[in-house]
Structures are given as C-alpha cells and as structure tokens.
Design brief:
The chain is 46% helix and 17% strand. It contains 13 helices and 14 strands. α2 packs across α3 and α7 packs across α11.
C-alpha cells in the first residue's frame, strides 16, 4: 500500500471557517508543543487542549501535527550536524594535504606584493590561512548548533490538518466527504456553533483528480490492527484533510491509501532496460535474457540554470519515454543506487566546477519521479550498485558494440541486475591478471 495526496481549490463557503480556525490553532501550537516536550500523558494533553474550545478529535489533530513537526525538526537538526561535521573533516584533510605539499617544496626568498603571491609556497600559505578561518567558522557554527535550543518551524499561519482515524465514519469524524452528494461536512468548535449556524458547515466539492481513489477509500473495509475485528464498510480507512493558503488562494488536500498497481513487467532474468543518468545526457540500453544489447539510445537533457519546474517537466518527459520502452518490451527498469550526501559535504574542497555539476545533478528528483511513475504503471524498478559501471562499459562494451559511454554503462547496469559476468576482456587484461 502507498499513500497519495490529491489537492483542489477550497470552496468559497469554507474560506471564513478556514481563516478563523487556522488563527485559533496558531495561538495554541506552542502550548501543544510544550505538552509533548514535557512528556505529559496523551490523555492529559488532549484534556488541556479541550479547555481552549476543541473537541477530542480536533485536539488530537493538533497534537499529531505538532508531533510530526517536532520529529521533522529533530531529523533536520541531526542532518545539519552531520553536514557540518563532514565539512569540518573535509577542511581538516585539505589543510593536512596542503601542509604536506608545502613541506616538500623548498622555500626561496622573493618579494611579495600586497594581496598577491608570487610562488607556489605563497599560494599554499594563502590557501591554508583562509581554509583555517573557514574551519574555525564551521566549528563555531557546530558548537552553537549543539548548544542551542531546538527550533520547530510551524510553517504558514494559514495551514492546518484535520486528521482522521480508522474506524471513524467516512475515515474522519471532523471532516467528512459524501461522495454521493459530492459534499464536504466539517465539525465546528462548540464556541462557534452560533456564528456558523450549527455543529457542521457544508460545501459542495468534487475533485478533478483522484475522485475515484477517494471513493474507493470511503467504500473500503478494514481490519482492526489490535483486535483483528472486521471494520464495516465506510470506516476501513483513515482520511486526513489539510487546509492551506498558497499564492493568494485557499486549497484543500486529502491523503488516502491506495493499492499498488500489480507488476506488469516480466522478471528481470528475461531482459531489462538499464538507465545511466548523467548531468547532460541520459543513456539507456535494452538487454535480452542473454545479456546482449538489443537496442539503445540517449536523451539529451539541459538542466543548467533551469527553474525547478522546468527541470521536473524535462525529466518527466524523458521518464515517460523510458516507461513506454519498458511497456513495449514488458521488462523492468534498472537505475543506479546513488547518494551524494558525502560528496556534497566536500564540495568546497573539490572546486567550483565540481560543485556546480553536483548542484545541477538532479538525481534525487529523477529518482523520485521514476519511482512514482513505475508504481503507477506497474513496472518493476530495480536499483543496483553503480560501482565502476562507466569504466566497465568503456573497456568492455563501448568499442565492441559501437555504443556511447552512457549507453554502455546502461548495459552494465542491466547485466548487473541480471547477475551476469563482469570479467575483464582478454584484450585489455594485463599479463598475470586473474580472470
């Protein structure tokens, strides 16, 4: 099972409620966060928030939202500390490298002008001096981060969830959707019942996208995880609604669980498509069951100086063509399992060109998009270790089949997923090298 979120514009009849409720929640976010941080029991937390006019379910929604933001803040802090530690380690290694290089060079006497260096020794001393300044700054930043109080970002004022639960009517007691009438019904806090004319407010709404998934979730039956009892029709799945303000408009989104599309592609042993992702080109190669290339090609991509939306649109077009190829051949897709966290920590020491290349290398976006589309279309996605794939393709397949370096690397990835041989060819093997 996977989750999907569908978004639509909020009906105008609900905008006054959304504005007032978001301002109400803003006042009590810090109180809810303090209750969570002080390890107060969940019952006591809920009872405390009910004193501010929330019912039990509304208070529970606020608490769940704050727990999520607190966990996110802790994870972000941990990642920030890890990044700073990596930068400090990289800077220390670079200083040692320059100092060793400086010690191996004789020191001739020469005149030095202001803000200039005339010899290699002067350049190295200049670099070491400024790298030490950078190192001290990063160490101070790390110390301040470790000693500072955890800061939780609540986001926009006009942003709040209404969290549902399994076993509740329509998956949520405080925000329900009637798919027959195509109508939203929201529970109003007790203190506002006179103002809004009753316990509930109603508004007509039909989702342009995801209406079938929402209806399927509302009609689903479920199983209680604790008791194993069958949950009746209409209460089997939790629906979480979120109201938020963006670009001068109010939106509503709903998150539901959807069944994964069954895998339509054949097992990898019958052949697959290997994809090698590079900053300027995406190479692919379809390999048959013997590991021999049947067809291959390239997609040119220019991601430099592009906005995020343009990058996503360009990658989405390439992924669509790759999935069409996989559909036509009824085979899985193989990509590299890459992580650039360690490399990005030492970007400063590697130079501007390398840093710029990593910055525009949108692998994570490509990975997320192709994973989403493969799940939607029932195509198996396989990730393999990318070690030496380009080098093996260059020496073993590039000249043999007349491929480019990226398509040859794609063939290596496909063969690796099929667990085929990667032995060194005879013509490039040095004397005495084992097979």
């Amino acid at each position: 099972m996977s989750t999907k979120t569908f978004t639509a514009e909020l009906p105008k009849a609900l905008i006054p409620f959304a504005i007032k409720y978001s301002r109400k929640q803003k006042k009590h976010r810090n109180t809810a966060l303090e209750l969570i941080c002080n390890n107060v029991s969940r019952t006591k937390q809920n009872q405390t928030l009910q004193k501010f006019g929330y019912n039990k379910r509304q208070a529970n929604s606020l608490l769940i939202d704050m727990i999520g933001k607190l966990v996110s803040a802790r994870e972000c802090r941990k990642a920030h500390i890890s990044t700073l530690e990596g930068k400090i380690s990289s800077a220390q290694d670079q200083i040692v490298k320059w100092e060793n290089k400086l010690a191996d060079i004789p020191h001739p006497c020469c005149s030095i002008r202001r803000n200039e260096y005339k010899t290699e020794q002067h350049r190295l001393r200049h670099n070491i001096h400024h790298k030490r300044r950078y190192l001290i700054a990063q160490q101070l930043k790390l110390e301040q981060l470790r000693n500072s109080q955890l800061s939780v970002n609540f986001g926009s004022e006009f942003n709040f969830p209404l969290v549902g639960s399994q076993g509740e009517s329509n998956g949520n007691q405080i925000c329900q959707y009637d798919y027959k009438k195509k109508q939203l019904k929201i529970r109003v806090p007790v203190e506002w019942e006179t103002e809004f004319g009753g316990k509930y407010i109603y508004a007509d709404k039909q989702f342009k996208y995801g209406q079938d998934c929402i209806v399927a979730a509302l009609m689903k039956r479920g199983v209680n995880r604790n008791t194993g009892d069958i949950i009746p029709y209409g209460k089997g799945e939790a629906l979480t609604w979120r109201f938020f303000y963006k670009n001068n408009r109010w939106y509503i989104s709903v998150t539901v669980e959807v069944s994964d599309t069954p895998i339509q592609s054949k097992p990898v042993r019958y052949g697959c498509i290997g994809v090698d992702f590079n900053p300027g080109v995406i190479g692919w190669c379809y390999s048959d069951y013997n590991g021999n290339p049947v067809k291959w090609g390239q997609f040119k991509v220019n991601l430099h100086s592009r906005r995020s939306g343009q990058v996503e649109a360009q990658l989405a077009d390439v992924i669509k063509e790759l999935l069409d190829l996989a559909d036509n051949n009824c085979c899985p897709i193989v990509i590299e399992n890459l992580s650039f966290c360690a490399k990005k920590k030492r970007m400063r020491e590697e130079g501007r060109r390398y840093a710029r290349m990593l910055n525009y290398f949108a692998y994570s976006k490509f990975n997320n998009l192709i994973l989403l589309q493969c799940n939607n279309r029932g195509i198996q996605l396989i990730k393999v270790n990318p070690a030496y794939s380009s080098l093996i393709g260059l020496t073993k397949f590039m000249a043999l089949y007349g491929m480019s370096s990226d398509t040859a690397a794609g063939l290596v990835l496909a063969r690796r997923a099929m667990r085929l041989s990667e032995s060194v060819p005879e013509e490039v093997r040095s004397p005495g090298c084992d097979s």
